[in-house]
Design brief:
It is a single chain. The chain is about 35% helix and about 15% strand. The chain is an alpha+beta fold and about 210 residues long. It has a domain of about 90 residues: OmpA-like domain (60s Ribosomal Protein L30, Chain: A, 2-Layer Sandwich), CATH 3.30.1330.60. The chain has a four-stranded mixed beta sheet with strand order 1-4-2-3. The chain starts with a helix and ends in a 13-residue tail after the last helix.
């Protein structure tokens, strides 16, 4: 083979290897494949409000009732929250009536509550257990989409805004961990539709000019 052809091939191979090495050099930014996974962190918190009664009384004073209403409004207690009225357990009959007064007050705001025990003897306590969604921080441009990454991993900001919007919109963050159980389906209407299809008794479609 002529020396000129060999030299030409070697120079072409050198250029090809140089191009490959240039493509396989990722950006120096800190990056790992795990960084591309954008997730919403779910944390459980407990909100507490203590309610006191006058000695031997089972009635909420105006101040205590107002304080309870303010707590509910300020913390926006509602869907997804688990509310409990905790009692010391020193005087079951008296505390049961006091707990009933608190439950009735909460019911006025459309809040259901269950009763549980508490070790502290300092009055009754209303607890609100809540799941809180912590969305990822956006934007995240630590890895650009054109940094020459040979593994072709996604850019760090991919999907970040979608996950953040979901974290801000979801009503009950605990459903990100496990969904609510489905209610039993209504089999009778479904079976009736199958029966109408089999017997040819399908109601006709309404007239397109119908205004009702």
């Amino acid at each position: 083979m002529p020396l000129g052809s060999i030299a030409l091939r070697l120079s072409s191979l050198a250029l090809l290897l140089g191009g490959v090495s240039g493509c396989t050099t990722p950006s120096p930014a800190l990056w790992s494949e795990a960084d591309a996974r954008r997730e919403i962190a779910v944390r459980h918190v407990q909100l507490v409000h203590d309610v006191t009664f006058a000695g031997g009384s089972t009635e909420l004073t105006a101040a205590e009732a107002g304080g309870l209403d303010d707590f509910v409004a300020r913390q926006q207690v509602g869907y997804g929250d688990t509310v409990a009225v905790q009692v010391p357990g020193d005087d079951p009959r008296l505390e049961a009536r006091r707990a009933a007064a608190i439950v009735e007050r909460l019911a006025r705001a459309g809040i259901g509550a269950e009763r549980s025990a508490i070790l502290s003897p300092a009055g009754l306590r209303v607890t609100v257990d809540r799941a809180v969604a912590i969305p990822p921080t956006c934007p995240d441009w630590r890895k650009a989409g054109n940094d020459g990454d040979p593994s072709n991993t996604p850019m760090s900001n991919l999907g970040c805004a979608n996950m953040r919007n979901l974290g801000l919109m979801i009503a009950d963050p605990s459903e990100l961990i496990a969904g609510r159980p489905s209610a039993p389906g209504q089999g009778e209407p479904l079976a009736a539709g199958v029966q109408r299809y089999r017997t040819g008794k399908i109601p006709p479609l309404p007239d397109s000019e119908t205004t009702k």
